[in-house]
Amino acid sequence: MERLQKVIADAGITSRRKAEELILAGKVRVNGEVVGELGVKVSGSDIVEVDGVMINRDIVKKYYLLNKPRGVISSVSDDKKRPTVVDYIDTEARIYPVGRLDYDTTGLIILTNDGSLANLLMHPTNKIPKTYIAKIEGLLNKDDIDRLRSGVMVDGKKAYVENFKIRDKNLEKKTSIVELTIVEGRNHIVKKIFEALHHPVIRLSRIKIAFLEIGNLKSGEYRELSIKEVKKLYSLK
Ligand code: URA
User: Fold this and answer.
1) I want to staple 93 with a disulfide (CB 3.0 to 4.6 A). Which of 21, 62, 158, 188 is the partner?
2) Whose CA is nearest to atom 4 of ligand 1?
3) 197 vs 17: which has the higher pLDDT
4) Is 63-125+216-234 in CATH node 3.30.70.380?
């Protein structure tokens, strides 16, 4: 038997605290009955609904690391029938991506059916570092570098870059390759940072999430995370 709020959080719907609020707001049903109070425990065979939708109660948790190709959507399904990251993984588990990479961004993305881990990795207070390689228009000058060091204003809020280095410059084509690590999770954040600096991103790839590196995963390939890696991810909280 497990606490109802944990079961809801594990399904990836929301955090445990918010699950408690949903329960108290009368939005959670167990076997068709509204619960409305905390402290209820459920077994694997109980049917749990949140806002009228039955939640995913996969008992076996699965964790995958995919090297997402370009032209793939970071979601479970797509109205326009474009390929999604889930299509790449051969599993019966109801997995979903942790966060998103843009349609045209390549690189590492975690997929899991473990909502607790997904919440942990996406929660801003846990400051999970993600490293990207960006090919950008132009060459960075001193002012650009100072702005990258001190934080770049994006949509009215500063975006901080933890670390960056210029990996390469093409003086003829006037493009640069920059490696940068950020901890925040706003959508399109890398593209917006470089847009603010007037150096639009031409190509973007994520090469590292926390300690997980791309290694020899080719585009479209994936691997399961080891138990040790999953434990290490949990320890980042
Ligand atoms: N930042 C972006 O701009 N795009 C991504 O896909 C990821 C981070």
Assistant:
1) 62
2) 188
3) 197
4) no
Domain boundaries, the chain: 2-54, 63-125+216-234, 129-209
Q: Give the residue whose CA is nearest to atom 2 of ligand 1.
A: 188
CATH of 2-54, one of 3.10.290.10, 3.30.420.40, 3.20.20.70, 3.40.50.720: 3.10.290.10
Which residues have C-beta atoms less than 6 Å from ligand 1? 101-102, 105, 188-191, 204
Q: Rounded mean pLDDT of 143-154?
A: 96
What's the pLDDT at 24? 96
Q: Work out which ligand 1 atom sits closest to the CA atom of 188.
A: 3
CATH 3.30.70.1560 is right for the domain spanning 129-209: yes
Ligand 1 centre and the CA of 85: distance in Å? Answer: 15
How far, in Å, is the centroid of ligand 1 from the Cα of 191? 6
Per-residue pLDDT tens for 159-179? 999 999 999 999 999 999 999
Of 33, 43, 45, 39, nearest in space to 19 by CA: 39
User: Cα separation of 90 and 105, whole Å?
Assistant: 22
From the candidates 102, 114, 144, 168, give the one annotated as an active-site residue: 102
> Considering only CA atoms, which of 229, 206, 190, 232 is closest in space to residue 66?
206
102 is catalytic: yes
Check residue 57 and give its pLDDT.
76
Helices (H), the chain: 4-10, 16-24, 115-122, 142-150, 189-196, 227-234
Radius of gyration of the chain (CA): 20
